[in-house]
Design a protein that fits this description.
The chain is of the alpha/beta class and 488 residues long. It contains 16 helices and 22 strands. The strands form 6 sheets. It has a 7-stranded mixed beta sheet, sandwiched between helices. The protein has a 6-stranded mixed beta sheet with strand order 9-8-7-10-11-21, with helices on both faces. A 3-stranded antiparallel beta sheet has the order 5-6-22, with no helix packed on it. Helix 3 crosses helix 7. The longest helix is centred in the first third of the chain and has 21 residues. The structure holds adenosine-5'-diphosphate. Adenosine-5'-diphosphate (ADP) binds next to helix 8 and helix 9.
Length: 488
């Protein structure tokens, strides 16, 4: 295993524009911190609006030739990137642990998950299909084809530094779009190191450009307003997504928005409780709870709620807290002190309103931003924790009386990303598929993410789908052509 110092020395610290690694014109820099120790890991370029404009210029300049590249060639570039990622898997895993905090074993899982987008969309590049047929009147022939949308701007969050980048870059490239990507300023190193991997895989100049900045709004605004940009893909919080949609409206951009979640995790009285608890641990504690798909509200039938709470408390009390590089750790630090403050405020509010604290409930007294894995039962209606995205290792349990009550409680949120349902009754499971207002559902499973699946939400959780057969269409425009009946 490579040492932390050797790895960090390999990670680029400048902007990647038009195939060159360049300094920022701002002359400013960003310190990237290890959330487990608060130490500075690296100091990187802080892009100015002029750098953002240069990155878009480079993407625009490369667009025509990239769109003209044979689909097989685009697919093979992604496949080479997939292969290189396997070779460098340990490095990417360690890098994500260092800048984001997740345990190395989970970071390794993200390398697998993130890599699959490269493989999947490398395969999809050659399957962009259209149709040809008679119009209903029989007087002409209708042709439907799909063309790349054009230069795309990708904005990614800090919680899955690799997978959020590959989930956007891979379909864009497969479709024939060039991109500017702006990773989160808290975890930019993985995207920079991934750009280097793409370079090694033979990426043509300007097809992918990376800008890192501490002034996201100032740098992104002019890019989004530029008429040469045709697509904005964002993953992050709902308020920022809403602000970006408003900006995108002025330029009538195609948009994909993966926004916040408030996932219900519904356990029926007929569920296999062992499986429900296993699923709950995954749905809640994967990524230290810092996932938009994290179970946010455990909605458990009143007859099994005590048993469920007891079993999950036992499991949660045994979780080891520490730096993600340490053996056996499953709870790393939260991303920063603000995230700890938020988790603490939500827990305190729930307890003040009458919830029972079964384990955890405190900050951890050590360097870095740690919060104890926590279980709350009997959370009262109206508590903030039922309405807001926790983004931390906190289980919050409420009870329900019957199926109708469960559906009402599960749907009582403005979000609609994912739901989890545990039941052994097939018909009930099928009713839940139709009754719960979410873009995705885990039926007797606690994780749904897969490169082959259309990931996305409804309501305030977003617009569009990433991954699956649908994912490439986020970067394709439909063109329809009519020709006269050739026999007439
Ligand atoms: P989170 O709450 O997960 O940090 P954010 O929505 O704040 O999510 O951030 C997600 C991404 O959006 C990050 O890359 C961040 O830098 C970027 N971002 C935040 N605010 C803006 C903005 N006003 N314009 C463009 N990008 C932004």
């Amino acid at each position: 295993m490579i040492s932390e110092i050797d790895l960090l020395a390999k990670v680029p610290t400048r902007l990647f524009i038009g195939g060159d690694w360049v300094e920022s014109t701002s002359g400013r820099s960003i310190d990237v911190h290890d959330p487990a120790t608060d130490a500075v890991l690296a100091t990187i370029a802080d892009a100015s609006p002029a750098d953002g404009a240069a990155a878009l210029d480079a993407a625009v300049a490369a667009q025509e030739s990239w769109a003209a590249t044979a689909p097989r060639v685009r697919g093979e570039l992604l496949r080479r990137a997939f292969d290189l990622l396997q070779e460098r898997a340990d490095e990417f895993a360690l890098l994500m642990t260092l800048e984001m905090g997740k345990p190395v074993a989970e970071a390794r899982g993200e390398v697998t998950y993130g890599g699959e987008f490269l493989r999947w969309f490398g395969e999809e590049a050659v399957r962009i299909q259209g149709r040809y047929g008679k119009n209903p009147e029989g007087t002409g022939r209708m042709i439907v084809t799909h063309l790349p949308v054009g230069p795309s701007f990708l904005i990614t969050p800090w919680n899955f530094p690799l997978a959020m980048a590959t989930r956007k870059i891979a379909p864009a490239l497969a479709a024939g779009c060039t991109v500017v990507i702006k990773p989160a300023e808290l975890t930019p190193l993985t995207t920079l190191y991934f750009a280097k991997l793409l370079e090694d895989a033979g990426l043509p100049k300007g097809v992918v450009n990376v800008i890192t900045t501490s002034t996201s709004k100032e740098v992104s605004g002019p890019i989004i307003a530029d008429p040469r940009l045709r697509k904005l893909s964002f993953t992050g919080s709902t308020p920022v997504g809403v602000a970006l949609l408003k900006q995108a409206a002025d330029n009538v951009l195609r948009t994909s928005m993966e926004l916040g979640g408030n996932a219900p995790f519904v356990v029926f009285e007929d569920a296999d409780l062992d499986k429900a608890v296993d699923g709950a641990m995954l749905a809640k504690f994967r990524n230290i709870g810092e996932a938009c798909t994290a179970a946010n509200r455990f909605i458990v039938h009143e007859s099994v709620a005590d048993e469920f709470a007891t079993r999950i408390t036992e499991r949660v009390s045994a979780l080891k807290i520490g730096r993600g590089t340490e053996d056996g750790v499953s709870i790393g630090p939260l991303i920063n002190s603000g995230a700890v403050d938020k988790a603490a405020a939500l827990v305190d509010d729930a307890v003040e309103r009458g919830a029972t604290l079964l384990t955890g409930g405190s900050r951890v007294d050590r360097a870095g931003s740690f919060y104890e894995p926590t279980v709350l039962s009997g959370v009262a209606a109206g508590s903030d924790i039922l309405r807001e995205e926790i983004f931390g290792p906190v289980v919050s349990i409420v009870t329900f009386t019957d199926e109708k009550d469960a559906v009402a409680k599960a749907n009582d949120t403005e979000y609609g990303l994912v739901s989890y349902v545990f039941t052994r009754d097939l018909a009930r499971g099928q009713r839940m598929v139709e009754a719960l207002n979410t873009g995705m559902m885990g039926l007797n499973v606690g994780v749904v993410s897969n490169a082959a699946a259309p990931f996305g939400g409804v309501k305030q959780s977003g617009i569009g789908r990433e991954g699956g057969a649908e994912g490439i269409h986020e970067y394709l425009e439909t063109k329809y052509v009519l020709t006269p009946d050739p026999f007439a």
